[in-house]
Amino acid sequence: MHHSPAGENYMSYPKGFSTWIVTLDHKRIGLMYLASVLFFFLVGGIFALLIRLELFAPGGQYMTAQQYNEFFTYHGTIMVFLVIIPMIPAALGNFVLPMMLGAKDVAFPRINLFSYYLYCAGAIIAVSTMFFGGVDTGWTFYTPYSTTTATNSALMLCAAFIIGFSSIFTGLNFMATVHRLRAPGQGWMKLPLFVWAIYATSIIQVLATPVLGLTLALIAIEKTFGFGIFDPALGGDPVLFQHFFWFYSHPAVYIMVLPAMGVINEIIPTFSRKPIFGYKAMAGAIFGIALVAFVVWGHHMFTSGQTDFVNMLFSLITMFVAVPTGIKVFSWVATMYKGSLHFETPMLWAQAFLLVFVIGGLTGVILATLAADIHLHDTYFVVAHFHYVMVGGTLMGFMAGLHYWFPLMFGKMYNEFWGKVACVIVFIGFNLTFFPQFIAGQKGMPRRYFDYIPEFRIYNELSTIGSALIGFGFVIALFYFVYALVWGKKIVGKNPWRALTPEWEADCPPATENFHHDVVVTHGPYDYVGERA
Amino acid sequence: MLEMLKDLLPTAATEAARQWDHLFWFLIAVSVVFFLIVMVPLVVFVFKYRSRAGRRPTPIAHNDTLEILWTAIPTVILMGIFAWGWIVYKDLMMSAPSNSMEIKVMAQKWNWTFQYPDGRTTSNELFVPANTPVKLLITSKSSDVLHSFFVPNFRIKKDAVPGMYNVAWFNSNIVGQHIVFCAEYCGAGHSQMKAKVVVLDPERWELWQWGKEIKLPEWVGFGGMELAASSSTTASAGTETTGIMAQNSQIHADLMIKQGEKVFRSKGCIACHSAAGDSVGPSHQGLFESKVLLADGRQVVADENYIRESIENPMAKIRKGFENRVMPPYPGQLSDEEFDALVAYIKSNR
Are the Cβ atoms of A336 and B45 closer than 8 angstroms? Predict the structure, then answer.
């Protein structure tokens, strides 16, 4: 472990490109993840805009059906595996989680760097499929389509397999870090809730992701040795693939959204100058969601031909996801009650998160209702629902967190006015994009449609206009972030938000060894008691 | 207002679809109420508790009563929602009466083929009489991929899976053309894989059965659109001379059984299986829809899927008492038509 000399910080010392690629510093690894995730967010976003452009009017305009199918596949795979899953744990979490524990680094710094390299390897392979035949299976890889397509699904499965291991290693690392490296005095009930959220996420990553690897390995075995596992022509069962796939991919939804909830847990009390409402229930709810996550996968398969009895069970269990989720939402609102609310950019994003996440959650209950899902399954209603949860939830949570920790990460502040403008534009654009999709879906428009009947035109037009607005909002964010990094004023002192969690005891930006002193935790993370304004 | 809401869903063309609509609007109403329960306080707090000089926040950290209430009340409401969802599901998907007209739906890239009880087939157009329960046995061609049979006006959707028969049903009282979408991604032609259900009044149904030209009824919803895919009607031999579908159905069923018996002999099933009683393998006498005891203690109903699976992959479900017998698996050795015939033959040995 290097100590940076006076006047230097983790970014400036040690110097040189080569020190970055072999760095074991969790902060530098976090930044490298951040840069990669943002790059792939741009790539996945461009695919999204291309999809929306094509769907502005019925019929083919700018591309063939085959190209369209490949574009939505790339949009889905890139956004899920390279952006939404690692966006908060691997990028923000890597940076702030050890610091929230008062630690110098994660438990296994070398494994941490190794997971980043696995992520890069997987990402390169995933992108390389564009030049080796493309992929048109959708991110769900349903058999027998994925095993019979002429496109290069095998290479993409290989990429997903590798990225999965990156995810497992990150999860293991964070679990060990939380268990072993907490500051003196930091009992479990004094952990910031972001740590609880990342911890629960890590458990899911470690337990569920191997199933994805196993499934992809089974496909490889089937293709190589001709064992009938999923392919009905060989005596296999294609529905079995769906069971395996969703056994991973449903918990993966919570890998995506729990960390965002963790971010909101930090921001709302800090900007309300009040303790979080119901700390224990909040921590419990995170674990409740993580637990139920493992036993609801069948709700993706209500029309697949699984038995009616199994359908009934999965519908019943899925209802219980809403209970802890409700506890969290109610408690966030209660935290603001009789607070002293500040609406700087992070808090504005947190409010946007609340609004859209509630819509995402409520439409989730509608889809969990067995009969309702029969009509709505695989329509744009589902597309709208999961974008409300994944974009509205995870992405907005990430943006809240990025604005919140930006001064800690870089020691500079972005322009507050443009921060708010971008937030409002993305928020409006988001709702304009995805709310009409609920209506198109309930009226019967199936998802993954290159062409649609004229009846659905108005909803698609609104949606495309909204998507352009989202893109515009993010371009503004890109500009003021870059401006802040290059020309931004240095922050004077520490802790611009006056937060109580340990990561803010460090300098902005932190020294290589994080803190100049040994962190000792003497108070709870949100003990904002009786202070003024 | 209510009329506006109606426009936000496709026309409900079956009784079950109307039940579905009640459930859906109830769910929307509950969602709106909960949305307001969260958003009204949020907006009030945003204005009321905005930081200003001298404002001192009150550090309320929890409230047991409130927390118990907002855990318990949603739980109760969610259980109610679940129950209603299950009740409507039973009507929507599980209630095909035993006297339903049975249609085989075969999906393949990228069209739908419908086979009627009398053996005639149509593609991309399913003609049915109004006010008659219709049971759909949905499957996908054995070398094909997944598809999904989705009729928005009936609120039904069921996946077409190769090698598997999935069941859906409807009973529509609205004469007209109802659009069918493929709802499971199946490649380049996915969004073009449309069909229609044409619900006919008794007069036109009578004419159609005789192979006469009929004027198609109006589209129900979906703006009088034209289907890109061409549709054709093919009548199997003898349709014109023997008349109505019910009579032909009997003839067709007999034909299928005969054909199945032929497969039964020619493919060698007869070496180990017999209708007379158990021999080397279990007997198929009285098998269909009976309860079968398996070696692992489970009991399953011998439906079409069970029979097909037991032929394709005999080791998947082993009958009790036949643990040590070995039957070679038959994947890919029988065509879909041969399977259908064989299943019809086994079904006939009631």
Answer: yes
Q: Do B63 and A334 touch (CB under 8 A)?
A: yes
Count contacts between A and B (CB, < 8 Å). 296
Q: What is the pLDDT averaged over residues A518-528?
A: 92
Asked whether residue A348 is domain-assigned, the answer is: yes
Q: Which amino acid is at B214?
A: I
- A265 part of a folded domain: yes
What's the farthest any 2 CA atoms get from each other in chain B?
Answer: 95
Neighbours of A492 (CB within 10 A): 8
Least confident interval from A72-86, A303-317, A486-500, A517-531: A517-531
Split into its structural domains, chain A has a count of: 1
Complex prediction ipTM: 0.94
| CATH number of the structural domain spanning residue A333 | 1.20.210.10
CB contact under 8 A, B85 and A371: yes
In a domain? residue A439: yes
In one-letter notation, the amino acid at residue A489 is: K
Domains of chain B: 2-48+62-93 (1.10.287), 101-242 (2.60.40.420), 248-348 (1.10.760.10)
Which tens digits make up the pLDDT trace of B128-181? 999 999 999 999 998 899 999 999 999 999 999 998 999 999 999 999 999 999
Give contacts of A 336-395 with B, CB under 8 A.
Answer: 336-343, 351, 354-355, 358-359, 362-363, 365-366, 368-372, 374-375, 377-379
Contacts with B189 from chain A: Cβ below 8 Å? 65
CB A308 within 8 A of CB B93: yes
Interface probe for A, chosen from B62, B88, B178 (most Cβ of A below 10 Å), is B62
**Going by C-beta distance under 8 Å and a sequence separation of 6 or more, which residues neighbour residue A136?**
A66, A69, A70, A73, A149, A151, B187, B188
Instruction: State which residues form the domain around A380.
Output: 25-505
Token pair for residue B296? Answer: 């692992």
